Amino acid sequence: MNNETNTPEANELSSQQSNKLDLRAKKIVETTEFPLIAKTFMGLEQVLAQELTELGANNVEIGRRMVSFTGNKEMMYRANFQLHTAIRILKPIAHFKANSAEDMYAKVRKIDWSKYILPGKTFSVDSVVYSDEFRNSRFVTYKVKDAIVDQFREKTGKRPSISVSNPDIRLNIHIAEDKATLSLDSSGESLHRRGYRQESVEAPLNEVLAAGMILMTGWKGDTDFIDPMCGSGTIPIEAALIARNISPGVFRKEFAFEKWPDFDAELFDEIYNDDSQEREFSHHIYGYDADMKAVNTARMNVKAAGLSRDITITQQNFKDFQQPTEKSIIVMNPPYGERISTDNLLGTYRMIGERFKNAFKGNEAWVLSYREECFRAIGLKPSIKIPLYNGSLECEFRKYVLFDGNMKDFRHEGGIVKTEEEKQEMAQKHRFKKNREFKQRLEEEENNEEGDIRNFTFHKIRGLGKHDDDHHFSRSKDGYKNKFRGRDDEERNMSGKRSHSNDKDKRFGGKDKRFGDRGNRYSKGKRHGYNDEDNYQD
């Protein structure tokens, strides 16, 4: 009997059965849901929650500058790749109370770190702290790091290395008073760094904030879109991505989860190369700026994003703006007088109001600004005011419905100044701080760690060369490839899939010639602590 069971046929059958069991177990693991946290900027929580709901996330709950949810590995990958308003996606691995530094050290050291940090791998720690006991985030970072290193020394005799610039594993610890949450950072570099920006003008708008503003308007590509003060083109580019439903992660070189021990490359390749949800866009996006340097910069960024067919950038002062022939929406971020100086700030806003009234009738406009006196200078009554933070500046995002004649006649003809949803939004208590003033926040320790752009200086992103043609990045199992973003049939292969080169060595041979070494794609500048995004310079 024993001889019969040990035949080659029996062994092969046993091996097949074992493989089936392994695949079944893998499938169970991949479909198992776990808690996740999506971080965002103050004021964008509701928009992010809506995005997550539409993505299929479960147990979506809004918090302070974050939205918690549950999902499986695929959901975590999709959240990083597809969300427009998330800064990063965290996977909590431990919750505990910490009443002192020694207590926190002991709790962190109890975690089995061998499951997350493999031999020879590097790690880094970011800290966000709101606590009377723990006042210094850098101190918290050091204590967590020490606890992990000491555990490895005790168990293996070797310590893992710390890498600030390009770690294999990124950790995040959040402390609110005595409650601590320790998470794996699945994103890596902040998700606002899309990858299409090659140059910037002074005080650029954060990409995540721009996307959030557009989504707040409800615009999904159903009309023309206009940004009359477009700067480096962030709002027009984000509008095009939303209109076409293009995943913003398509431009990125990598995500942190790609270095995790359980990374499923096949699953992520499926997500990365799936463009089935992309939409046609029959209207057009226009960006204008009076500064020719800004115009050239915006054009370069639009071209790098592969969106030149959808976006036209033109030099034009808004005072020369004329009534559009097609129904349109304006979304704009004028100068505040804080980071961009102007000779006549209030005069600029009076001009904005004049153009709205005389050259944009029958449409709606949205304005993000910082000073109450600037809004007053516009001279129009907004239908909704939404508090938003632009970096450390406590701003408002206001909607203006523009029409001929008086309000009574406009409503009699079926015009809607304020939707039911907007009425409910405006009726909410505590939407604004009590005795709120338009001024820079004083609580500097609570700055959006990935969004503070107060100290911007003009620069070119190092490592990005100029592109001969519009493109974006796509990948298959072989890695990253370049692809023209146009929608012509000749830009697809005969099977309808994205065209890829199989020459892996040429793509990265000597690393990618277009982008330089993978880790040098972005200009880092000098680091101030563990979180490179504390001083946003992009």
Description:
It is a single chain. This protein has 538 residues and is α/β, with parallel strands linked by helices. The chain has three domains: 157 residues, VC0802-like, CATH 3.30.2130.30; 213 residues, Vaccinia Virus protein VP39 (Rossmann fold), CATH 3.40.50.150; 62 residues, no CATH class. 30% of the residues lie in helices and 19% in strands. It has 15 helices and 17 strands. An eight-stranded mixed beta sheet has the order 2-3-1-4-8-7-5-6. The longest helix has 24 residues. The protein is globular. It starts with a helix and ends in a 30-residue tail after the last helix. The relative contact order is 0.11. The C terminus is likely disordered.
CATH class of the largest domain: Alpha Beta
CATH architecture descriptor of the largest domain = 3-Layer(aba) Sandwich
For the record, what is the CATH homologous superfamily label of the largest domain? Vaccinia Virus protein VP39
**Per DSSP, what share of the residues sits in E-state strands of 2 or more residues?**
15-25%
Q: Which secondary-structure class do the elements indicate?
A: alpha/beta
Largest sheet: 8 strands, mixed
- Please give the alpha-carbon distance between the first and last residues: 72 Å
CATH topology value of the largest domain: Rossmann fold
What is the average per-residue confidence, as pLDDT, rounded to a whole number? 77
